[in-house]
Design a protein that fits this description.
The chain is an alpha/beta fold and 465 residues long. The protein has helices at 34-42, 56-67, 126-138, 157-166, 183-191, 208-212, 217-231, 249-259, 273-278, 286-302, 344-348, 376-379, 381-384, 389-394, 398-404, 406-410, 414-417, 422-429, 437-444, 447-462; strands at 2-5, 9-15, 17-23, 28-31, 44-48, 71-74, 87-92, 96-100, 143-147, 173-176, 197-201, 235-241, 263-268, 308-311, 315-317, 324-325, 349-352, 358-359. The strands form 4 sheets. It has a 7-stranded mixed beta sheet, covered by helices on one side. It has a 4-stranded mixed beta sheet with strand order 4-3-2-7, covered by helices on one side. A hairpin with a 4-residue loop joins strand 3 (17-23) and strand 4.
Length: 465
């Protein structure tokens, strides 16, 4: 009998992650054992398989692969498509690239990382952008998430989307201010069988225009959200909190929930150079931010847990659920964390700036020290993901931080905190291995215990059956 991998699956491998099965078109993946990989290699539609040539373990694996819908039986020889065969990439695995396709924008946000709309970091030419997409494919990147600036101001936007798809990569998330998100734009996505999730900025009822520096920005964002809801495109929100809009949090989240937004992420405005100049007295310190977030937690449960909410560095609250997580508690409080990645998210998801620089995350764009990281036009993406300062950093461990950071190493909370956020540390101290002062404040002032008490009391009061 012949067996073959179903047409939506591809076998892939990377340095230190050699056996992987990728499912198209969403490019989800699962790592394989050596035995699973061995069986899948035989399921090529051309190799006759029988009990005599397979061990009991291999037969059991084959049975499970068939039950999972990964492998199918063929009555006659039926070879795999060329792209399904195993391909190995001689660089480290990166799941997705978060790519600012332009530094230009149609807003004048008071806190912009890249000084848009002037576009301090510019954008790659069309030819350079296409070449970058080709390099992404050559490195086995599975997904490209699109941001800016404002991505829709780029004239060759659809050409780039087509190029990404032609090179076998998925587009799952698009970040936009919503002003250019129209029905015709959604038509173009649907023509390409794409249904990305739109992440739209919304900074509080009555405050969004002020924050974004453009009249009508608030209504444009809300209309874009309503349009996506009518058309079946998922949406989420990022809300920047400051002194001025902190008291609109409850009202804003209820409004967004009523529209049908999937999730709301609340963050303190990043302390960028632009925000220092433009905040008009609305800068919050760590205490003010944390206290504002604590005030909202009971309101979430009183409002019947309307939507997924992340209050960054405070708590993750789930729609319709009593459970919660405290993201600052990253580890179990034991030395087992020492060999964990210093930043797990940055290890598997890279950020590419408008000028083509490979960074761990977008907030590092605001730091002058970003020039430590490689420019793809100079070194190539493959080298950037193999042998560069970038890879050295994203592969670093908590042990490495504690070896050079005396304050972190002496802290009683180090095995829970794990050093906090490196982008925060870089912005605050100019050092990637410096202290994340916001996390220091969180732990020194006992906020973990306070969050738990407030959340548990609210659950008991508002969620009892």
């Amino acid at each position: 009998m012949f067996y073959k991998i179903r047409q939506q699956y591809r076998m892939r491998g990377w340095e230190k992650m050699a056996w992987v099965l990728v499912r198209r078109p969403e490019n989800s993946y699962k790592t394989l054992t050596a035995e699973e990989f061995q069986v899948l290699v035989l399921c090529d539609g051309r190799t006759k398989l029988s009990g005599a040539c397979m061990t009991d373990e291999m037969q059991q694996i084959l049975k499970e692969l068939i039950e999972e819908g990964i492998v199918e039986l063929c009555e006659k020889e039926d070879p795999l498509a060329e792209e399904q065969y195993y391909r190995y990439y001689d660089n480290r695995f990166v799941r997705s690239a978060f790519w600012s396709i332009t530094g230009r924008c149609n807003c004048r946000c008071r806190h912009c990382f890249m000084d848009a709309p002037e576009g301090r970091l510019g954008e790659l030419s069309h030819e350079q952008a296409v070449n970058l997409i080709e390099q992404m494919e050559e490195c086995g990147i599975l997904r490209v998430d699109i941001t800016g600036g404002e991505p829709f101001v780029r004239k060759d936007f659809w050409e780039l989307i087509d190029c990404i798809q032609e090179h076998g990569m998925a587009v799952r998330d698009v970040y936009t201010n919503g002003r250019l998100l129209t029905g015709s734009v959604l038509d173009e996505f649907e023509k390409r069988n794409l249904k990305p999730e739109f992440s739209i900025s919304f900074d509080g009822t009555g405050w969004h225009d002020w924050m974004r520096g453009v009249r009508g920005a608030e209504e444009a964002a809300l209309e874009a959200l309503r349009l996506c809801q009518r058309r079946g495109f998922p949406t989420n929100i990022e809300m920047c909190v400051h002194k001025g809009n902190q008291d609109t949090l409850r009202e804003t989240i209820k409004l967004l929930s009523d529209i049908g937004v999937r999730a709301v992420k609340v963050i303190k405005v990043a302390h960028t150079d632009a925000w220092k100049l433009n905040n008009e007295g609305n800068e919050m310190d760590s205490r003010e931010y944390l206290e504002a977030m604590l005030r909202y937690i009971p309101q979430f449960f009183e409002d019947k847990m309307p939507v997924e909410v992340m209050l960054s560095n405070v708590i993750v609250l789930h729609k319709g659920a009593k459970e919660y997580e405290i993201p600052s508690v990253k580890h179990d409080g034991t030395e087992r964390c020492l060999d964990r990645l210093l930043c797990g998210a940055a290890r598997y998801d890279c950020y590419i700036t408008p000028e083509g620089r490979l960074l761990p995350c977008m907030p590092m764009t605001a730091c002058r020290e970003q020039e430590l990281f490689p420019l793809i036009q100079e070194v190539g993406l493959k080298r950037g993901l193999s042998d560069s300062f970038y890879m050295d950093f994203v592969d670093s461990r908590i042990r490495d931080l504690l070896n050079v950071n005396v304050k972190c190493n002496a802290c009683e909370h180090k095995y829970q905190c794990g050093g906090g956020c490196r982008a925060n540390a870089l912005a605050q101290s100019g050092s990637l291995m410096g202290c994340d002062k916001e996390q220091c404040f969180f732990w020194e002032e006992g906020y973990e215990e306070r969050i738990r008490k407030i959340a548990d009391k609210a659950i008991e009061r508002y969620c009892s059956v």
